[in-house]
Every structure is written in C-alpha cells, then in structure tokens.
Amino acid sequence: AGGGAGQGAGQDAGPAAPERVLFPPTFSVSEIKNKQRRHFMFLRWKQQQRKEKLALRKKRRKEREALGDKAPPKAIPKTIENQRIYDETTVDPNDEEVAFDIATDEFAPYFNRQTVPKILITTSDRPRGRTVRFCEQLSTVIPNSHVYYRRGLALKRIIPQCIARDFTDLIVINEDRKIPNGLVLSHLPDGPTAHFRMSSVRLRKEIKRKGKEPTEHVPEVILNNFTTRLGHSIGRMFASLFPHDPQFIGRQVATFHNQRDYIFFRFHRYIFKSEKKVGIQELGPRFTLKLRSLQKGTFDSKFGEYEWIHKRREMDTSRRKFHL
User: Fold this and answer.
1) Are β-strands 119-123 and 145-147 bridged in parallel, bridged antiparallel, or unpaired?
2) Residue 110 C-beta-side C-alpha neighbours within 13 Å
3) How far is residue 277's CA from residue 211's CA, in Å, rounded to a whole number?
4) Disulfide: which of 38, 85, 214, 235 matches 223 by Cβ 3.0-4.6 Å?
5) How confident is the model at residue 112 (pLDDT cuts 50, 70, 90)?
6) Nearest-CA neighbor of 242 among 75, 111, 93?
7) CA 279, 224, 101, 297 torsion: positive or negative?
8) Are the C-beta atoms of 44 and 27 separated by less than 8 Å?
9) 213 and 239 inside one domain
10) Distance CA 82, CA 260 (A)
11) Mean pLDDT, the chain, integer
12) Residues 6+ apart with CB under 8 A from 108
C-alpha cells in the first residue's frame, strides 16, 4: 500500500525527473554476461563519465573567474610527447662533436652552397596510375626535380647514371596493390640512404578545400621536432632536397613535422590577414613517413652497412620512447 501511495503522490506532483544512473564503486561492465545489456550499460556509463567531466570543468572555470588574477596557473596536461623518455643522443647545438659532424658529413657541400639540388624521382617497376600521379605531383613540390620511369632497371644501374648526370638525390616510390607504400631516399654520390614506410597518401583531388595548383616558386621548408642525432640526419636529408633561397613572393611552404617518430608532410600556401592572423590553404599532396632503416652509402640491399634499423620487438617496448 505504501508503495502504491508513493507512486500516486509522484504522479500527482507531475512528471518525474529522469533517474540518475548510480554505478557501484566496484562496477565492471565486463561482468555482465548478456552482450546487448553489456553494450547498453557501457554506453550509459560513458555518458555519465562525460557529464561528470563537463560538470567538473564548469566548476573549475567558475572558481577561476571568481579568483581572477589570484587564480593558480593552469596545470600542464600529461601527454605522450611531454612524458617522453630522455634520449642520450638528443642534439645540443653547443656540442663541439655535433658541430664537427655537421661540418664533415655528406650534406656539408649542400649547406656550404657548393652544390645545387637536382632530384631524380622514379618508381618501382610497372607503376600504376595512382603512383604515377603522386610522383608527378611530388615533382611540383620539389624544385629542379625530374620524373623518370624505371623500365625494369635495377637501382644499382640507375645510381651511376644519376651521378654521371649530376643528380644530388634519388627518390624511389614503391607501391603495393596499386597504392604507394614506401619511399627510398638516397643522397648522391656518397649516401646515406633512408628507407621509409609510406602511408595516408592523399593526392590533390582527394583533399577538401584545396588551393589552386602550386606555382614554380621555390618554397620555404619547415622541419619540426628532429631532436636526436638520427633525427638531425634525417632532417638535414630532407632539407638538402630544396634550394637554399626560398622565393617568399610565392608564399608556399613545405612542412616535415615529426611526431612520435611519424613524419607528416604537408604543402601549404599562406597569406597574412593581419599582424596576428594567417590564412593557410593546403595544396597537396600529403603523406606520412615512418623510418625503417638508414644505410651508409648508396643503396645496397646485400652488402650495405646500416647505421640504424627499426626493430619492432626490441625498440617498441615503451610508447614513450622515440628515436627521431
């Protein structure tokens, strides 16, 4: 009778408020045997978590507004990047050993302005249409680059021909199942040679809100987060693909951004709207690289000496350990 009276009183008072889900402290969704019920309870639990997080955020914002200038500084959120395990090979710009290596490495002639970049872009044997279009678009990004097709030639025969024709770098785009999936970059005539896994390739027509075709102006180059000795070498390798003096009138910029050992490439055109605002427009193409190996000298798959090889089971033991 008491239960009936309680229900009657609730109905007379108007529509009842939605019941708040209260989960016990030791609640575990995985203990629910029924699959549909488990999925439903998981969604309700996630919804409750979002509401509590939003309420806590609003409470903190009101407290900061009430304190005004006396509010404590905002806490820096923990991310994988700022919790990175320290690498003893991190480059110190004041290190004499690093300065000596930079002055005597294979890229020193380029940075001393003794050579002008001249790039040969080629593909794996019998490339498909998507790979061919990607090479053609890549040649519009890198000045003084030329696209030639393999025609069944081995790289060991191509490299001497490139050196004889004064090419400074060789780029080979590999494909698998009609999709570009690898990039080999070899600095000529003495190396080194880097092998990258390529993913997330987007051609210009596949990019939303893209700009007009890029012009022939020499672009600016941005290299981000190449902090270790290995990353420093890779960054210098990318820099040596572009001429020294960018033509700022073209307002084009090529960016190689390293994050968690993934190298993201983007090509943009920019315009200054005011002293504080800049508008950017992606031109494409875009792709992501993951370093697999760095080899001394030019390409030699059998007898080449490797400076660094990515070994997943040995090197990927921690998510906070990065090599570039």
Assistant:
1) parallel
2) 24
3) 18
4) 235
5) very high
6) 111
7) negative
8) no
9) yes
10) 11
11) 87
12) 102
244-283 pLDDT tens trace: 999 999 999 999 999 999 999 999 999 999 888 999 999 9
SS3 at position 189: coil
User: Where does the pLDDT of residue 25 fall: very low under 50, low under 70, confident under 90, or very high at 90 and above?
Assistant: low
- Residues recorded for the chain: 324
Question: What percentage of residues in the chain have a pLDDT greater than 90?
Answer: 56
Q: Alpha helices, DSSP H only, in the chain?
A: 2-12, 35-67, 96-104, 108-111, 129-141, 155-164, 229-239, 312-315
In-domain check, residue 48: yes
The amino acid at residue 129 is G
Torsion angle, alpha carbons of 97, 101, 102, 106, to 10: 180
Condensed to tens digits (0 to 9), the pLDDT of residues 129-176 reads 899 999 999 999 999 999 998 888 888 889 999 999 999 999 999 999
What tokens does 60 get?
Answer: 């903190």
DSSP state of 204: G
Which domain covers residue 62, as residue numbers? 29-70
93 and 215 belong to one structural domain: yes
Range 22-33 average pLDDT: 73
The pair of structure tokens assigned to 277 is 């605002």
Residues 44 and 153 in one domain: no
The answer to the question of residue 1 being in a domain is no
CATH at 258: 3.40.50.10480
- Give the chain's domain count: 2
124: CB partners within 8 A, 6+ apart: 131, 150, 172, 173, 174, 175
Q: Is residue 256 part of a domain?
A: yes
Indicate if 236 and 97 belong to the same structural domain: yes
Q: Which of 202, 198, 204 is nearest to 185 (CA)?
A: 198
In a domain, 158, yes or no: yes
Residue 120 vs residues 139, 165, 241, 269, 273: alpha-carbon distances, Å: 9, 10, 10, 25, 37
Q: Is the peptide bond before 285 cis (omega within 30 degrees of 0)?
A: yes
Number of Cα atoms under 13 Å in the Cβ half of residue 41: 15
